[in-house]
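Reply to dn_fold:

You asked what the input looked like. This is it:
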Amino acid sequence: MSGVAVVTIAHGRHDHLAAQHRALARGTHLPDHYVVVAMDDPAIVDRRDGDLASRVVRTGRGPAGALPLAAARNLGVRTALDAGADVVVLLDVDCLAGAGLVAAYADVVRAHPGSVWSGPVTYLPPAPATGYPDDPSALAAWDDPHPARPHPAPGELLESVDPDLFWSLSFALAAGTWQRTGGFCEDYVGYGGEDTDFARTVLAAGVGLGWVGGARAYHQHHPVSSPPVEHVDDILRNGRIFRARWGHWPMEGWLAAFEERGLVRRHHDDWVRTAAPSDARAKETA
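and this is what came back:
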């Protein structure tokens, strides 16, 4: 078993996916495998950029029509391991790989396979008219990692024992470590909770969490809602799964923000729906 795989999951975001492909193809270390899991999106197909070809595998939607983010990541990693990868990098479709991201992840995972490693992520401003640069080394001019997460400098490593700081935007691990953790819990469908659950599963399996400064990624700008009101139902459903598994609710900041908008209310140890997102927006603009 040898080789580095990059796995990304996607539904839509075709321009972001193409830009990610270009950045990976121009990094200092070319992935041996680039697996794209298309979730209910037949428009995503195998393509080549330079010396890097993608392999697309497919899955449908989960219960209630939600995208199966956890199951899709598991499918992507299984595909990478079956292809012979010993290091797997999971990178959100919105993220551009910095020039040294693949190399830094490969080095740290092989040197320290007993941990799951994350890299700093910079949220980019809107792209200029010419788009973000294809040369990933040029992205360093925008480097400004998200302040809510550890952000060691290039060449530095940090250990982190706080699972709430883990996020699935960008991380890497060894094949054996993935098998030891069992991957993502596929009970989670749709948005929210599955990455925090995974971090707790990692720690429960006796695996460490760490941050590697050289594996820098750059999140492409797109409009977002804060809090994510369009995902209220997913967050309630996944929050209940998380509470049953770990004894408390995740995403409490979002739940409190939903409560302020009249979308949910606390009922004993549960959160319940009180209004649709469209109703809440109408109240705010009235």
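The two ends are 60 Å apart (CA to CA).
Hope that clears it up.
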